[in-house]
């Protein structure tokens, strides 16, 4: 039962509650100062089940942490970097993320983390907040560089319209890699694995109140599924070929759903069919064989 992972998510839940109850009065300078943290190793069964959720092979990650799982261990530091912002972060929406592997993150070892507020792009309608995070172990403090971009509506005249994602589509030439059937409780499963318990992902009534007509899948979950689809369908299960990944979340993915991952050259998409709507668009970089 994945409910046993709740105890591992207490730092994530605590940092989220502190963030949502704090609000500053003035914009913060960017880039902001580096903040640092040290976290214990991730439980191996938690990592194994996260890889299974994403459709990957757990044995491929027996000795190393998957880079797409970075939100689970960086979230407390990420929320610390957001402290003092003059925005209502209860309305925040995940707009995109990226990661770049510079070295391995071994399982079973504590990690040294660094994070900072990288950029704020704000107008009278919305704020786009980007954070930079470094995860390392042993002698390499920056084995993984990752970013998260958050969207916050500011209540301007067009703020609700601005919140709607661009009308991205899957290119007609894109090649399908995999198809996933996601149950209605997929958001609850991913929340137990990561600590992201935003109710729009697991309480249907709350999702409807937020205007999504039901629960929607986490953006980070889409990214995880896309990354493992690239490993298995594009790189023949060689995880080391996938060196970097960047994406933006362009539409809510309603649950339950049949989601397919598509690829076109160095572009990746989560959608239903070529020519149809894309829920996520991204790009990746592959190491040469």
Walk me through what this model shows.
Mean pLDDT is 90; it is low at 159-163. This protein has seven helices and ten strands. The chain has a ten-stranded antiparallel sheet with strand order 1-3-4-5-2-7-10-9-8-6. The chain has helices at residues 10-20, 44-53, 70-82, 159-163, 186-194, 204-209, 219-234; strands at 35-39, 93-101, 111-122, 126-137, 140-153, 175-182, 242-249, 257-264, 267-271, 278-286. The chain is of the alpha+beta class. The protein has one domain (2-286): Hotdog Thioesterase (Thiol Ester Dehydrase, Chain A), CATH 3.10.129.10. The termini are far apart. Helix 1 runs parallel beside helix 3.
Characteristic terms for this protein:
289 residues; alpha+beta; Thiol Ester Dehydrase, Chain A; ten-stranded antiparallel beta sheet; 24% helix
Sequence of strands across the biggest β-sheet: 1-3-4-5-2-7-10-9-8-6
Q: How far is the first residue's CA from the last residue's CA?
A: 39 Å
- Roughly what fraction of the amino acids lie in strands? 25-35%
Average pLDDT works out at 90
SS-based class? alpha+beta
Order of secondary-structure elements: HEHHEEEEHEHHHEEEE
As a percent range, the share of helical residues equals 10-25%
Shape: globular
Largest sheet, in brief, is: 10 strands, antiparallel
CATH-level-4 superfamily name: Hotdog Thioesterase
- Which regions have little confidence, pLDDT < 50, spanning 5+ residues? 159-163
Give the CATH level 1 class.
Answer: Alpha Beta
CATH topology: Thiol Ester Dehydrase, Chain A
In the CATH classification, which architecture applies? Answer: Roll
- Count of β-strands: 10
The overall number of domains is: 1
User: How large, in whole angstroms, is the Cα Rg?
Assistant: 18 Å
Number of helices: 7
């Amino acid at each position: 039962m994945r409910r046993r992972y709740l105890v591992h998510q207490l730092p994530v839940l605590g940092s989220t509650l502190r963030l949502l109850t704090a609000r500053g009065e003035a914009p913060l300078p960017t880039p902001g100062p580096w903040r640092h943290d040290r976290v214990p190793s991730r439980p191996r069964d938690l990592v194994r089940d996260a890889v299974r959720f994403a459709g990957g092979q757990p044995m491929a990650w027996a000795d190393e942490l998957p880079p797409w799982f970075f939100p689970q261990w960086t979230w407390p530091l990420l929320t610390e970097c957001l402290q003092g912002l003059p925005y209502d972060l209860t309305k925040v929406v995940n707009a995109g993320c990226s990661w770049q592997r510079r070295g391995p993150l071994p399982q079973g070892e504590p990690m040294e983390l660094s994070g900072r507020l990288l950029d704020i792009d704000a107008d009278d309608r919305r704020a786009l907040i980007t954070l930079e995070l470094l995860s390392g172990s042993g002698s390499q403090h920056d084995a993984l560089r990752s970013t998260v971009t958050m969207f916050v509506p500011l209540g301007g005249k067009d703020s609700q319209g601005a919140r709607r994602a661009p009308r991205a589509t899957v290119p007609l030439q894109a090649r399908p890699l995999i198809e996933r059937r996601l149950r209605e409780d997929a958001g609850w499963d991913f929340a137990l694995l990561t600590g992201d318990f935003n109710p729009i992902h697991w309480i249907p009534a709350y999702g409807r109140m937020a205007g999504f007509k039901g629960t929607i899948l986490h953006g980070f979950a889409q990214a995880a599924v896309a990354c493992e689809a690239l490993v298995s369908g594009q790189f023949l299960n060689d995880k080391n070929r996938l060196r970097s990944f960047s994406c933006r979340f362009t539409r809510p993915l309603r649950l339950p759903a049949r989601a397919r991952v598509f690829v076109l050259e160095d572009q990746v998409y989560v959608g239903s069919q070529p020519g149809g709507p894309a829920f996520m668009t991204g790009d990746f970089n592959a190491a040469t064989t």
